[in-house]
Amino acid sequence: MPQLLRVQCFNVSRDGFGTGEGQSLERPFGHADPNPLFSWRAATASFVYRTEPGGTRGLDDYLTRDAECNIGAEIMGRNKFGPQRGPWENHDWQGWWGDNPPFHTPVFVLTHHERPSFTLADTTFHFLDASPAEALDRARQAADGRDVRLGGGVATIREFIEADLVDTMHIAVAPVDLHRGERLWDSHTNLLDRFHLEAVPSASGVTHLLFWRR
């Protein structure tokens, strides 16, 4: 079976924004309140940060579990790793996820500035100045036959789509408008020349858009 490059459980607003304007260390999503974007997933029984029993089952929970299925490596842009720009000045700061990041695989962070790899629990972060195709080759080697997840952010997903490297995408559209920030698309219909699409509404209020390569 081929190794797929998958976008999983990526959240956008109804007007197509994946994050707000003005990202900072204290506000990873800038002016946007992330709760309306992510509440569907946080409510599920399989949410990675759930600390108590309970949570919803059904479609949202299935897609939350599927995000981890057969993933051997992750690629993310620098903006998903952290808000810093330019050369890395503080190697002590190691991302927004604490001592036990939720990835549990090698993670390849795209950046134009060198930084040594480091490991937290069972996740190792590598920093690459590479094209999308080169980064995907590295990630596939590290994934040991499993799929590669493209974690975001928005600019990174757009770059990989434009390079025609993405095989499947699950985008959860929340019923809220952000009005400004980083936009994934003007309309998801612009992708139908290269992807099939099924739109599945959920009782939580989000609409799950499932894309797969034509």
Automatic annotation (TrEMBL):
GO terms for molecular function: 5-amino-6-(5-phosphoribosylamino)uracil reductase activity. Residues 93-182 form the Bacterial bifunctional deaminase-reductase C-terminal domain. Signal peptide: none annotated. One of its GO terms (biological process) is riboflavin biosynthetic process. Gene3D superfamilies: Dihydrofolate Reductase, subunit A. It holds the Pfam family RibD_C. InterPro entries: DHFR-like_dom_sf, RibDG_C. This is Deaminase. It comes from Micromonospora orduensis.
